[in-house]
Design brief:
Layout: H1 2-11, H2 16-30, H3 37-49, H4 54-70, H5 81-89, H6 94-109, H7 121-136, H8 140-177
Helix pairs in contact: 1-3, 1-8, 2-3, 2-4, 3-5, 4-5, 4-6, 5-7, 5-8, 6-7, 7-8
């Protein structure tokens, strides 16, 4: 995922030192709020792509996160964060985005294969964010950033699944040889 965000940053019209400084400042502001340093790094890269001061972008991201939580929609704090950052970078009213997200998530929750027992609420809420961003975000590189975050999450889940299968196969082989 770092490679994809590095590529997005390199496509930006902003100079490298500005981007790096902006990403570092966002990271410093957001790290105390979220557990995963890697997810915060990805979020910081996304926010560095947007216009405005780091403090404002981070504040909007945290406000969006908190408003969702207040409504009972706990947004994920791992690979989901870049999508939240993309939404926060839009100039739209955050409460309007929250309403759109909660309405869309409620709809998706009733669809086969998207309920709480299938993909989980946090992951579904990230997909909801990706759907909603089409209404609010008009910058191609930011849309790509959200998609890259999702792909990274899927790859991580597949790697975890392979590790679990390998561990269970090793345990079964060990038990059968004893």
């Amino acid at each position: 995922e770092d490679s994809s965000f590095a590529a997005l940053l390199s496509l930006s019209e902003r100079d490298d030192s500005t981007l790096l400084s902006e990403a570092q400042r966002c990271y410093e502001l957001l790290k105390p709020q979220f557990f995963s340093g890697n997810a915060v790094q990805s979020l910081s890269h996304v926010l560095a792509l947007g216009d405005g001061r780091a403090e404002e972008k981070c504040s909007r991201t945290l406000l969006l996160y908190d408003r969702l939580k207040e409504r009972g929609y706990k947004y994920g704090t791992d690979y989901e964060l870049p999508t939240l950052g993309v939404l926060a970078l839009s100039e739209s009213d955050l409460m309007e985005i929250v309403t759109e997200m909660t309405d869309t998530d409620d709809f998706l929750a009733k669809q086969k294969g998207l309920g709480n027992w299938s993909i989980g609420r946090k992951q579904r809420l990230m997909y909801t964010g990706m759907l909603v961003q089409g209404e609010y975000v008009k910058t191609g590189s930011l849309e790509t950033a959200a998609i890259n975050g999702t792909i990274s999450m899927i790859v991580a889940q597949q790697a975890a699944m392979c590790a679990a299968i390998a561990a269970s196969t090793a345990a079964a082989a060990s038990n059968s040889s004893s």
